[in-house]
C-alpha cells in the first residue's frame, strides 16, 4: 500500500480493532462504528438498507440530463465489458480424452463505493456493471452516507446497474461485514471497489477469507506532452486527478522546459478558481512533478518506471510512443482524449492499478468476477497413457498411493467411448 503518511501504523491499528469487533459482534459493531465515523444513529442494520423502491424513486426524480448521462455512460461501460467476457472451452485429443476449462461467475460479490469526501456514482457503474456482465448471482453494495446524506446519483446509478442490496455503511466496518457476514448482511466471496486508507487496509487484511480486486492507492496521472497542447488543458488534466485526494499524484513529462514553465503558469492562474483548490494544492505540493526529459524515448523510460494509473499521451503522434509503453493502467491517446473521459464514460473501467502495480496488475474487468475450473475426462486409451506416466512420476516422488491410483487405470483401461463434456 502506498498511503505514505506518518499515520499508516495508526490506520492499521484502528482497522485491526474494527475488523475484530465486526467479526465477533456483527451488526452491533457495524452500528457502533457507523455512528462514530459517519454520524448515523440507527437501531438496527436493516435501517441502513436502501430499498429498491427508494433507488427507483431517486432515478425517477433525477433531472433528465443527469439521468441520460448516467444511462449513456452505463451503456458504453456495459458494451466495452461485454467484450471481456470469456467462455468455457474444451478440446478432444486423438485418443478421445477431453480437456477443458469451465468458466463460472462468482456467486456473491460485495462492492464498496467510496463516499467520505465525495460521492462516486461513476464508481457504482464501474464496479457493478462488469459483475453483472459476468453473471454474478448477488451483488451487495456498501457506501458511506456521512451524516445520513447520500447523493441521489449514487442511488440512481445503483438502480441502473441493478444491485441486489444496498446499505449505507462505509470504511473498514463495511469491508469487515462483507467479509465475515452478520445477522443482516450475508458474507460475500469477493470484495471490489476503491476507498481511502482505512478501506484499503481492511481489504488487505480480509484477503484470504474473501477475494479482493486490488489495493487501490490514491489516484495518479502522468501526462507526456510534446509541447503542442494548450497548456491550460494540461493544467486542468493534472488538477482533475489531484482534486481526488491530498495524496493524489499528478506528473507532467515533457522535453521542452519552456512548455513546462507555461503549464506551471497556467496552473497558478487557474487553481484559485477550482472548487477543491486546497486539496489540489496539497496534492501538487507533496506529489506533483514537472519532469524535463531529453526526448520522448527518455519519457517512455520515466513512464515505465512510474507505471502510472493513468497515462495521457498528449502528442501529435501518440501511436509512435505507445509501443514503448509497457506499464500503465490505462492510456489516453492524443490531445483530444482527456483522461476524465475514462473516469466516466469512455467505456473502459476506471478502477485501475495504482502505486506502480501496473507492472503486474490490470484494470478491474469482467475477468475479476469469473473463475475458471479445469476439466479432465480420460478415455480408456488416454487413462492408460497418462497412468503409465503419472505412475512413474509418483514413484519418483515416493508417493505410492498416487502411483497405485494411476496404475489401476492402466490395467483397467479399455476403449470405452466417452460422451462429450
Ligand atoms: N481508484 C478509483 O477508481 C477511485 C474512484 C473513486 C475514488 N477513489 C479514491 O477513494 C478514496 C475515497 O476516500 P473517502 O475518504 O472520500 O471515502 P471512503 O468511503 O473510502 O471512506 C470513508 C469512510 O472512512 C472511514 N473513516 C474516516 N475516518 C476514519 C477514522 N479516523 N478512523 C476510522 N475510519 C475512518 C469511515 O468509516 C468512512 O465511512 C479517495 O482516495 C479517492 O481518490 C478511487
Ligand atoms: N479517477 C478516479 C480513479 O480512476 C475515478 C473517478 C471517479 N470519478 C472521477 N474520477
Ligand atoms: Zn478521477
From TrEMBL:
Catalytic activity: L-histidinol + 2 NAD(+) + H2O = L-histidine + 2 NADH + 3 H(+)
Residues given in the record as NAD(+) binding sites: 112, 173, 196
SUPFAM superfamilies registered for this protein in UniProt: ALDH-like
Recorded family membership: Belongs to the histidinol dehydrogenase family.
Needed co-factor(s): Zn(2+)
Pfam annotation, one family: Histidinol_dh
PROSITE patterns per UniProt: HISOL_DEHYDROGENASE
NCBIfam families reported in the protein's UniProt record: hisD
Binding site for substrate: 219, 241, 244, 310, 343, 397, 402
GO molecular function annotation: histidinol dehydrogenase activity; NAD binding; zinc ion binding
Keyword annotations: Amino-acid biosynthesis, Histidine biosynthesis, Metal-binding, NAD, Oxidoreductase, Zinc
Chain sites annotated for binding Zn(2+): 241, 244, 343, 402
UniProt function note: Catalyzes the sequential NAD-dependent oxidations of L-histidinol to L-histidinaldehyde and then to L-histidine.
One annotated GO biological process: L-histidine biosynthetic process
Protein name per its UniProtKB record: Histidinol dehydrogenase
GO cellular component: cytosol
Active site residues per record: 309-310
Pathway where this protein functions: Amino-acid biosynthesis; L-histidine biosynthesis; L-histidine from 5-phospho-alpha-D-ribose 1-diphosphate: step 9/9
Enzyme Commission numbers on file: 1.1.1.23
Cofactor note (record): Binds 1 zinc ion per subunit.
Lineage: Bacteria, Pseudomonadati, Pseudomonadota, Gammaproteobacteria, Chromatiales
Top-level taxon of origin: Bacteria
InterPro entries: Ald_DH/histidinol_DH (IPR016161), Histidinol_DH_CS (IPR001692), Histidinol_DH_monofunct (IPR022695), Hstdl_DH (IPR012131)
Organism: Nitrococcus mobilis Nb-231
